[in-house]
Amino acid sequence: WGLLLLVVALGLGGTAATRCPKPCVCDNLRSHVLCLNGNLTAIPGTIPQLTKKLDLRGNSFTVIPVGAFLDTPYLTHLDLQRCKVERLEEGAFRGLGRLVYLNLASNGIALLYQESLDGLSSLQQLILEGNRIEEIQPGAFGHLGSLTVLDLRANALVYLPDMVFQGLQVLRWLRLSHNALHVLGSEAFAALPALRRLSLDHNELQALPGEALARLDGATRLDLGHNPITYVAEKAVSMASLKHLFLDHAALQDVAPDAFARSPQLRTLDLRENQLRGLPPLAGARGLAKVSLAGNPLLCSCLLRPFHDWLARARVQAEGSCTAPPALRGRPLDSLRAPEMRCGRPRPPPSPTVPSEQPRAAGSGQCPRGCTCSPDFHHGSCENRDLREIPKGFPRDTRLLDLRRNIFGTVPPGAFPGLKELVSLHLQSCSIGVLQPGALQGLENLVYLYLTNNRLSTLAAAAFEGAPRLAYLDLDHNTFARVPAGAFQLLPNLISLHLQHNTIGELAEGDLAGATGLRWLYLAGNTIGRIAPPALAPTKMLEKLHLEGNRLTEVPTSALRGLSALSELKLSRNPIKRMGDGAFLPVASSLQHLYLDNMGLEQISPGAFAGLGPKIRSLYLESNKMSNIPDMSNFTGLEILNLRDVPFHCDCQLLPLRRWIDKLNLRVGATCGSPAEARGLKVKVSTAFQTCPGWGRGEAGGAHPDKTEAASKPGKKKRSGKSLARGFKKSRA
């Protein structure tokens, strides 16, 4: 009987393994399923149960619902890159106890709640790079006890609360580069006993976060480059195991002599590209072997002699060269002799301004009735309590206050007394129609304000009085018919503004007055038909502009003038039928990601992409109606090109495109819409081009069906951008 049961089980397993949902490809021998770059809007329900590796890159899921993968409990690898995911429901990954690798990069996730990643007890690598995560609630990673690598690069984080990484007992590398971090809780890294590497480069830290870093006894490498840090104070770096410290490309003007005295293992110190005129002897760093000072304006006078003498005594290698005095300009530090380092009239270096730390207020007060307060996390919550008035009496050290799903109607003046340390305030789905002047008075450390799913139709600048550090304002799903002009005058630190899914019909001059530091503007899902040329003028630092799902009939070229930092532009789902010459010229030098999909686009002029070139990394043109596209041979930096559901006319005029995409190491999804004999065929395999003049020069085997996807397979050598450009230009000739 046991043998019979085994045979039946194997038979069922084999049956399960043979089912393969469309449009996926299943490799039953290796238990792999690939559903790449399709039009899936939900996780396929017929994936073989025994699947171990599931690749769903390039689909359109928006939401990962509760229990989405309960039917595939044997998964070890799951790839959800570029799937337009905006929300992970609590419990989305339950049942995936065997998963070791999860990639959610390049999506639109904004928030990680406490149960978002529940059920992933074996997960070792979590990739969340390139989302728009603004906030992480403490406890979000509490179930990831096996995680060794956490990648949060290129998100929108400003603040890390205390104990935010609690539960990550074996984490070895935490990647937080390319965010906007400028506030770190003193206990932010307290729960990371195994961490060896911390990447905090490319953020907005103005002072070295010494108190938070002191919790990392085992970390050996710390990346702090590309932060506006001006000074490293006495004993600022207190990390017992630190060996490699990177403070390059910052704004350093001075370093204290004993700045590294409490990091006895420090071996290499990278201070390249700062504003250092010199350094004192770093006597406290007894183990130091190398200091990199290249790119600093070093004054090699007698003032630098003590440092130079210390280098020789301590046998520390120094990289860098003199910029003054003129007689020593360009001389490497290690070539100097003491008598050469003379002084005329010594000038002491300017004393840098050191940002002062705000004293922490002691927690006091009881929790309001019916609410819960967590002293460990500094949280307060009255979520979904059917409250009519905002409760008072939270502990003074509360930093995150969750009041979602109540029925407040209005937020009166002084609604949050005594909460000077509050950083994050959640007021989603509270039927709020009025935010009265002074409503946020006293919230001097507030960074995040969530007002999604309310009934707001107007806002006055006075509503934000008393909250000058507010950086993230979420007003999605309200009833704004226009942008509340002048409302942002008192928000000099505003970085991210969400006004999606309102009924805004126009972006007018003055609407964004005062929003001079804005970097990310989200206006998707409105009814915008016009953007006045000066409307975006105040937002000169803008990096992302999302306008998808509006009523624009042309690219707002005039309004883009002056946006020299814009790297991402989304125009998807606008009724733009024709695209004229120079449509993106004002942002051509900075644009990297361009979304032009699902517009019904019928014609793209030959010069529409003028000025765009190697900086473009992703271009989305799927689901349009044009039959040809302009020369893109200079798009040599492309990582993503989507041409699915475009009815290309496969004749000799399309031959340059045919040759170009044949050489790309990308899946582009281009298919023929005409002539009739080629309809439905991939452009890369269509035989319609074989009668064209010049076919056969360098085409040997190029259109053979068996070789169509060869360039996309692992191990295939990628052609260089230059060779692609040469190939395209030659084919045009």
Q: Could you characterize what this model shows?
A:
The protein is mainly β. The protein is 7% helix and 17% strand. The strands form 11 sheets. The protein has a 14-stranded mixed β-sheet, with no helix packed on it. A 13-stranded mixed β-sheet has the order 25-26-27-29-31-32-33-35-37-38-40-42-43, with no helix packed on it. Helix 4 packs antiparallel against helix 5. It is globular.
Summary?
By secondary structure, the chain is mainly beta.
Features:
single chain; 733 residues; mainly beta; 14-stranded mixed sheet; 13-stranded mixed sheet; 5 helices; 7% helix; 17% strand; globular; disordered N terminus
Number of helices: 5
Which oligomeric form is depicted?
Answer: single chain
- Show unreliable segments: 1-17, 346-364, 700-733
Helix fraction, binned, reads: under 10%
Mean pLDDT, rounded to whole units?
85
Distance between the amino and carboxyl termini? 74 Å
Strand content: 15-25%
Structural class: mainly beta
Q: How many strands appear in the DSSP assignment?
A: 45
